[in-house]
Amino acid sequence: MKKSGASQGQSASELISKRIAGLGDWRGETLGRMRTIIKQADPDVVEEWKWRGTPVWSHDGIICTGESYKKVVKLTFAKGAALKDPARLFNSSLDGNVRRAIDIHEGEEIDESAFKALVRQAVALNSSGKSKPSKKAKS
Asked: What is the pTM of this model?
């Protein structure tokens, strides 16, 4: 697993696990559940720790970030405006040209299959955005 933006020798994955455990309430459970669904949707996802402590999931670019606030867990898709969202999961940051977010409040459930579809679309969009395949061998 690639280390990116990690601090003090801890991998981004370890830092994300600490954040989830540190929340210790419904927000930690929600962020942990969404993390699991992201990994199920894209087994090759790279976990990153950016911007002084934001969990980020990437694959050929950012898929989404996972932030926790007092009353909401927010998953912001970097290119959400370009994704089809037939289940209408996006319920925040709807007025922007690029990003879209899903705010999850305490007790709310997310349609897992619809969320996985968004993650897979984001990966496909990121992968298609490459102008030309790299000549370097992929490791």
From this structure: 0.86
Angstrom distances, CA of residue 55 to CA of 46, 67, 117, 133, 135: 11, 7, 20, 27, 30
What is the β-pairing status of strands 73-77 and 46-50?
Answer: unpaired
Alpha carbon 25 to its chain's center: 20
Residue with tokens 């992929």: 138
- Would you say the C-alpha torsion 38, 40, 41, 44 has a positive or negative sign? positive
Q: With 0-12 CB in 10 A as exposed, 13-18 as middle and 19+ as buried, what is 44?
A: exposed
Q: What six digits make up the tokens of 131?
A: 């102008």
pLDDT digits (tens, 9 = 90+) for 68-98: 999 999 999 999 999 999 999 999 999 989 9
The answer to whether 45 and 120 are in contact (CB under 8 A) is no
Strand ranges of the sheet holding 73-77, from the earlier edge strand across to the other edge: 46-50, 54-58, 62-68, 73-77, 100-104
Amino acid present at 3: K
Token pair 């559940």 is at which residue?
A: 33
